[in-house]
Write a structure and sequence with these properties.
Blueprint: H1 4-21, E1 80-84, H2 90-99, E2 104-109, H3 112-125, E3 130-134, E4 147-153, H4 162-172, E5 173-187, H5 192-196, H6 198-202, H7 211-220, E6 224-234, H8 238-242, H9 247-255, E7 259-268
Parallel strand pairs: 1-2, 1-4, 2-3, 4-5
Antiparallel strand pairs: 5-7, 6-7
Helix pairs in contact: 1-3, 4-7
Length: 272
């Protein structure tokens, strides 16, 4: 059984390779880029299109998301926003277009390579109110009551201790603030081979919680007015599942009713 520390090392190494691979002359489809199949899952099976969204920067879109949290986050001009697992800065730049020059957007990412890539993108855009910080979601380097809104896109499923993550989100939000996150969750029982495999963990699947357990972690952290804004079934490619399951196990999985879902969830911190 993998330890919490080893899981974090797996995630950091995997997404560091994605950041470096995306900068190669071969582009994002080179080995270890987000849509490569040569060294891990195809992450783009989860992603949604950002085309037409104000602030969208294609250079910052590595195809690693599983929703559009900014579309349901109720962002307003002048707000202070934290993006957890900010990657190359994609959602931060979309959020910045909404909160404007009087707002502030902070991205937090576990991978130093991703953080540096995001900083380079922000520098190219000339944004002075967008910053990127390296750090751990389970132990955020921010003071209590620092942000109006917290967003995240397909990242909390990678955090070993989801309960700790939501407790930290509660801590850094100001009273009356809220979060809106897109994430991967499970409906039904996931086969152990998928649960145990490190490659699938870094691909957002084996680290996911059951939907009810996920919402329970949000409630236990003290959040109120929990809402599911969007929910869709993710179809994993058969060739990917065959890597982890034998023919009989695959047939059982397909008829079991188990599903991998992308959900966008929001909840509020009490004002007093």
């Amino acid at each position: 059984m993998k330890t919490k520390a080893s899981i974090k090392d797996i995630v950091k190494e995997k997404y560091g390779r994605i950041a470096r691979g995306s900068e190669s002359t071969a582009g994002p489809t080179s080995c270890c880029g987000p849509s490569s199949g040569c060294c891990g899952p195809d992450y783009t099976v989860f992603s949604e299109s950002y085309d037409g969204l104000s602030g969208y920067q294609p250079d910052a879109d590595l195809g690693l998301g599983c929703g559009l949290p900014t579309e349901y986050s109720g962002l307003e001009p002048g707000q202070s926003v934290l993006d957890l697992g900010s990657g190359a800065g994609n959602d931060c730049f979309v959020a910045r277009a909404i909160v404007g020059e009087n707002g502030r957007v902070t991205g937090l990412d576990f991978s130093d390579e991703m953080t540096e890539k995001a900083r380079t993108n922000a520098l190219k855009l000339g944004y002075e109110n967008v910053e990127f910080v390296s750090g751990d979601i389970e132990d955020m380097p921010f003071k209590q009551d620092s942000f109006d809104v917290v967003i995240s896109n397909c990242v909390l499923n990678l955090v070993p201790d989801k309960h700790r993550a939501f407790t930290e989100i509660m801590r850094v939000l100001r009273p009356g603030g809220h979060f809106c996150v897109s994430d991967v969750v499970i409906k039904g029982r996931m086969p152990e081979k998928l649960r145990e495999d490190a490659e699938m963990y870094a691909g957002c699947v084996s680290g996911a919680l059951d939907l009810d357990e996920y919402l329970g972690a949000v409630q236990e952290a003290g959040f109120v007015n929990i809402r599911i804004h969007d929910q869709r079934l993710i179809d994993l490619p058969g060739e990917l599942l065959k890597k982890y399951l034998g023919d009989k196990e695959l047939d059982e999985f397909l008829v079991s009713g188990t599903g991998i879902l992308s959900v966008t969830v929001s909840a509020e911190k009490r004002s007093v």
